[in-house]
Amino acid sequence: MARELQSRREELGELLAREEGKTRADGIGEVIRAAQVFQFFAGEALRLPGERVPSIRPGVEVEITREPVGVVGIITPWNFPIAIPAWKIAPALAFGNAVIFKPAELTPASAWALTDILHRAGTPPGVVNLVMGRGSQLGDAIIQVVDAISFTGSVRTGRRIASRAIERMVKLQLEMGGKNPLIVLDDADLEIAVDCAVNGAFYQTGQRCTATSRIIVQKGIHDRFVASVAERMRSLRVGHALNSATEIGPVVDRRQFDSNLHYLEIGDHEGASRVGGTILQGETPGFYMQPALFTETSNAMRINREEIFGPIASVIPVDDFEQALEIANDTEFGLSAGICTTSLKYARHFQANIQSGLAMVNLPTAGLDFHVPFGGRKASSYGPREQGRYAAEFYTTVKTSYVRP
Ligand code: ADP
After folding, report:
1. In 3-state terms, the chain is what percent helix, strand and coil (to 5)?
2. What's the pLDDT band for 119 if we cut at 50, 70, 90?
3. Once rounded to an integer, what is the mean pLDDT over residues 355-364?
């Protein structure tokens, strides 16, 4: 798997760009990520640990082992159509499960390409099963035949899957939305803070569940920070996904584009100021928009409560660190959160008290390693973590054996 993904990274990266609209460079990066994930879990298959412990009864031995869960339903979104299925399918197979893979409606070609490689890599017949179609029609049918479901998508769909799955006591792992905050304190390195904000909020057209959406900025650095971000935004090259100069590709489809424009209207009506957000005409058809930054916003506004999933972020001005932390945690979500500061005291306090699964210090809220756990709290996630060694928790079930030899 890893070898073929690596050797075809240019071609598959281009396929991702053509199908989803991410830049070719991001597409290639995603294919490399998928290859790394398969390589990592190939090793994990041989490292699944067990335990042997003394019993309270003489002459009895106790062994704790992990076994496959069975058939795992894997339901995935369109924003990382190769990497997300890879980080679910790789541990599923490494730990001995069969898979029913239901990709997003918008990205069938990427899903087919990945499944084709899996089949040719020698997975036995019936172990990896690709089913295409509308989630609303297939979802319930999948839930009826699986032992576990790993889902990434919207909170609404996640809740629906959870309520159906629980009737059959199906094991669940749900990764859903975010409203990820980035705190910028007065003592931050301005260049790092601007990089974190622009990368986190706008790259990949803001279509990442870990994207920065609420930028909480202390008043002493506020004006310099907003001016620098606005300047960087003006120089961002929005365009065709296959043009090598492009930094931000088009929005994935009309539905998402209309939703983004609707949130711009909502923000304008709520009284926020705005930089950017203009609709752009490309040389070819597509849903191109300039990234947008709302300023002078409050955390109570809808633009700061609901996940937008586009290249749109807000600045919330604050007086001090304590207020920033309170606002950062005042959300129904808890996936990723970041802080830009040169103070160890504030960085450590943030790390310990932010209510999120991922905490980033002087780094963007998005952009993760493949070998460590990924997941969030509150409405962002449900069930065991994905990725790294922690993936074994979901893709295996524990057996405790008592033996009198
Ligand atoms: P998005 O808004 O990103 O499209 P969704 O949560 O609607 O997010 O979609 C994520 C995945 O969930 C897709 O593969 C979609 O087909 C699937 N899906 C949508 N509705 C259901 C459902 N009722 N049951 C199971 N899967 C669903």
Report:
1. 40, 20, 35
2. very high
3. 98
Rounded CA separation 307/59 (Å): 58
State how many domains the chain has.
Answer: 2
Question: Is residue 244 situated within a structural domain?
Answer: yes
Give distance in angstroms: CA of 6 to centre of ligand 1.
29
14's tokens: 């281009």
Which range of residues forms the domain containing residue 7?
A: 2-176+380-403
From start to end of 226-291, where are the E strands?
273-276, 279-280, 288-289
175 catalytic? Reply is yes
Same domain, 282 and 395: no
* Residue 292 to residue 294: CA distance in whole angstroms: 7
% of the chain beyond a pLDDT of 90? 99
Q: Are 299 and 327 in contact (CB under 8 A)?
A: yes
Q: How far apart are CA 57 and CA 98, in angstroms?
A: 38
pLDDT digits (tens, 9 = 90+) for 71-97: 999 999 999 999 999 999 999 999 999
Q: Model pTM?
A: 0.97
Alpha carbon distance 248, 231 (integer Å): 16
Task: Confirm or reject: Cβ of 136 under 6 Å from ligand 1.
Answer: yes
Side-chain-side CA neighbours of 63 within 13 Å: the count stands at 9
- The answer to whether the CB of 206 is under 6 A from ligand 1 is no
